[in-house]
Design a protein that fits this description.
- By secondary structure, this protein is mainly alpha-helical.
- It has a domain of 32 residues.
- Helices cover 54% and strands 0% of the residues.
- The chain contains 2 helices and no strands.
- The two termini are 50 Å apart.
- The model has no long low-confidence stretch (mean pLDDT 86).
Length: 84
């Protein structure tokens, strides 16, 4: 490595920083408007059709059947492959 670094700390000149920063608080009306806006967004993203218990159960059964089919298919494919 050809680069040498100095061991003397450099001098940094910064502009004077304000000693007192005024904190702005959020007003009650602004806070209420924020909560109302978030509630409206959540309400707008709700599902339009509620899924029934039967439909949910059928979907779970279909997923389990698909996984079982893929497992059997993979086992059969592995057994029919030529050994390497």
């Amino acid at each position: 490595m050809q680069t040498t670094l100095t061991t003397i700390p450099g001098r940094h000149v910064h502009s004077p920083q304000p000693t007192h920063v005024q904190v702005r608080r959020v007003g009650t009306i602004d806070r209420l408007a924020l909560h109302l806006g978030i509630a409206l967004i959540a309400w707008g993203r709700r599902p339009l059709v509620v899924e029934t218990h039967e439909r949910r159960a059928n979907r779970v059964e279909q997923e389990l059947a698909r996984r079982e089919f893929e497992r059997v298919y993979d086992d059969a494919r592995r057994l029919s492959d030529y050994p390497r």
